[in-house]
Specification:
single chain; about 300 residues; alpha/beta; Rossmann fold; six-stranded mixed β-sheet
């Protein structure tokens, strides 16, 4: 069950906090790199997302002195769509209207399967989590609920609701979030973030909230600073059905998410070296600043 323990495992005087594990929303390390390195290929096979993903792993390991990674992947299907069919509909429509975007998306899907099923396991990364109907967000939330000392890597603000249990590194913005920094920024506790999303909805996931209620208004309501005679206050009181539906969509982990057991890795530098040659990632082996051998030996 959830505790209220802060996720800070800091070493005095060192901004790089120490963690037992780094739990990764894999999509957060895949898609940005796919756009930046969309021309990268090996034998006419696109490899930009794979290259960027692995380079990000090395950065995270070196910066946070940890090479124990837990990889969270989106599962097949969507239990949320069963509750609300319009969930994330606009994303699919946008891709279908933009051929280049759709091509990159499909290339990422292929490369993500290569990483999950071949490259990472062959290199000895043994902790890969996915569950049918659930998203990586659910698995990340479940991991920090049951395991201490985890740094979460995610660009999704929905994960703020877990900040009483862990710290979160936003790899896209290169920013660390802690329970303390969240409270300072928003004036509410992390657990209240799910209330904000239930009231205001989530535009990135196509979840509508109470009409007229955005993030700031929801926070004002939760803090008791929205006048009772205000029309938005009345709308919130009358929006019980919307709020109850949204809780089912935004609360993490979603009901039915299974426990994730962590097992030891069997990291293998020789297998990594062989993979680099196969995919033409010569810079990983030739660039002295990319110390992959120490990464695999656990000396990061």
């Amino acid at each position: 069950m959830r505790s209220t323990r802060s996720g800070n495992y800091g070493v005095p005087g060192d901004k790089r906090l120490m963690y037992r594990y780094i739990a990764v929303d894999c999509s957060s390390l895949l898609f940005g790199n796919a756009f930046k390195m969309k021309q990268l290929k090996a034998n006419e096979v696109k490899t930009g997302a794979i290259f960027g993903f692995l380079r990000n792993l090395l950065f995270l390991a070196q910066y946070f002195h940890c090479n124990k990674f837990l990889f969270c992947w989106d599962g097949k299907g969507s239990d949320r769509k069963k509750i609300f069919p319009e969930y994330k509909n606009k994303r699919g429509k946008s891709r279908k209207e933009d051929k280049q975007l759709e091509d990159i998306y499909q290339a990422v899907l292929v490369q993500s399967r290569q990483l999950k099923n071949e490259i990472l396991p062959q290199c000895g990364f043994n902790n890969h989590f996915a569950q049918e109907g659930k998203e990586a967000d659910d698995l990340l939330a479940n991991i920090v609920t049951y395991h201490d000392g985890v740094l979460m890597v995610s660009n999704d603000e929905d994960m703020f609701q877990m900040l009483d249990l862990c710290d979160i590194w936003n790899n896209g913005k290169q920013r660390m979030w802690s329970e303390r920094s969240f409270i300072k920024e928003y004036g509410i506790t992390p657990i209240q973030w799910v209330d904000v999303k239930a009231l205001g909805g989530c535009s990135s996931d196509d979840i509508p909230g109470i009409p007229g209620v955005a993030e700031k208004t929801a926070i004002k309501y939760l803090l008791g600073n929205l006048p009772v005679h205000h029309k938005t206050f009345t709308a919130i009181k009358n929006g019980k059905d919307i709020i109850e539906r949204n809780y089912k969509l935004v609360r993490l982990p979603m009901d039915g998410t299974k426990y994730q057991k962590i097992i030891p890795d069997t990291l293998n530098y020789d297998a990594f070296e062989k993979m680099c040659k196969k995919y033409w990632f010569n810079s990983f082996l030739e660039n002295l600043s990319m110390d992959w051998e120490n990464f695999f030996r656990g000396r990061v």
